[in-house]
Amino acid sequence: MTEYSTPKPVEPTVYDLSSPGRVGHTFPQCDVPLADFPAGMTRDDLPLPELSEVDVVRHYTRLSQLNHGVDTGFYPLGSCTMKYNPKINEEMARLPGFTQIHPFQPIETVQGALALMYHTQEWLKAISGFDAVSLQPAAGAHGELTGVLIIRAYHHACGDEKRTKMLIPDSAHGTNPASSAMSGLQVVEIPSDARGNVDLEALRQHCDDTLAGLMITNPNTLGLFDENLAEVCELVHQAGGLVYGDGANLNALMGIARPADYGIDVLHFNLHKTFSTPHGGGGPGSGPVGVTAELAQFLPGPIVDVVDEGDQDEPPLYGLVMPEKSIGRVKSFWGHFGVIVRAFTYMIMLGEEGLRAASEHAVLNANYLQARLRDTYHIPYDRICMHEFVAEGRWPDAPEVHALDISKRLMDFGFHPPTNYFPLIVHEALMIEPTETESKETLDAFADALIQIAEEAHTNPEILKTAPHNTPFGRLDEVKAARDLVLCCWVPEKSGF
Ligand SMILES: *Cc1c(COP(=O)(O)O)cnc(C)c1O
Hints:
By secondary structure, this protein is an alpha/beta fold. Helix content is 34%, strand content 11%. The protein folds into 2 domains: 88-348, Type I PLP-dependent aspartate aminotransferase-like (Major domain) (Aspartate Aminotransferase, domain 2, 3-Layer(aba) Sandwich); 359-483, Alpha-Beta Complex (Aspartate Aminotransferase, domain 1), CATH 3.90.1150.
């Protein structure tokens, strides 16, 4: 049995810190006559905490530091690409010229914002090899839904109504079957072969005239580049289907391989992962979709285009256009503009060479870690990996230790745990994605911690089972926390709320 610690507030609340009469504000002298509020509109017993400015600043700064973040430590959460987010992205997203505009403003008055969106579309096209991009979708899963709707619209336009089957490899991210099912398609799982590739034999069996398409993540969630990818895409195309690429793992490919070149028809980008926007708290994200020329007319709009080329004296004029057979809007206004500004800043700061170098270093860092851990942790699909890899968090001679115990123990060393129990095809999976932004020293410290933990699993498993030991809370009952959610742990006695 796992021992759970009793959650108790470790920090005082603002009410505990309150002291009668203390204030944190200064109002200017009143220069108009005082008047009474009408009776019944005010009350005397509003129990707000009374604190000085410095008390408030310290309280909230301290609370903010109880969370692990990529600005405070290594965050190798597989499939999430928790790279460092350069602060210049934030500065650009906060420029008044971007924050003080409104989507209802006349087009001529927001040309700078439209130019930024247009050039972001162009960068994404160049990186992926696609002919057209829409910036509308709000996140990766939303991009998937959009892409699957485009595939449906395409078959519909061809009069091919019986194509209702979407093939999804068993190594897929959970959002893949979810978005296919949400758009009304039937999901069929395809197994992986012993090398972690799509099983070609199984794929062939499903390539018939009911095939809408295949949804594939490449590199896949094992961190492996599918060795038969071109053949996989060809098989699907020969059967009349289209290939959806889950582009969440683009961090391995920038400037090296373009998805459109190896047969993907439609793909989403996770701007918040690959192009560095903070996303640990769950959003906002941005999941633009790129497509081949054949599918461009189905994209959601509006899309930014050059409506007047301009000349030597006049800059080009940008406008918003709706593709001819568009599936419609998938988001209000123009998508998550602030995230797009951050991604654009990231791209132009790094440039073509820099983006390629980012991918090369992401792959190098993952392979370095994999090599350092190979002798201690079993790597079920052991070959050169891309930007992440999956190890097993278990040993036959330490049966009581699970991946979760390893992850909890890592927190004692100040590291965010890797992704646990995903992909599902690896037992006790530990999915590790170091990203390019970490130094060799950090990678070595992380590998040393994992090697020490493996030793403890054999000599002192108790220290793993009871971890973490030095975090504000000990081990929590995660199932109870999700089912029995208590969002407010303290209510003022005489709150009146
Ligand atoms: C993150 C991720 C998604 C979903 O993206 P969101 O932006 O979180 O909706 C889909 N597929 C893979 C492989 C991912 O890592």
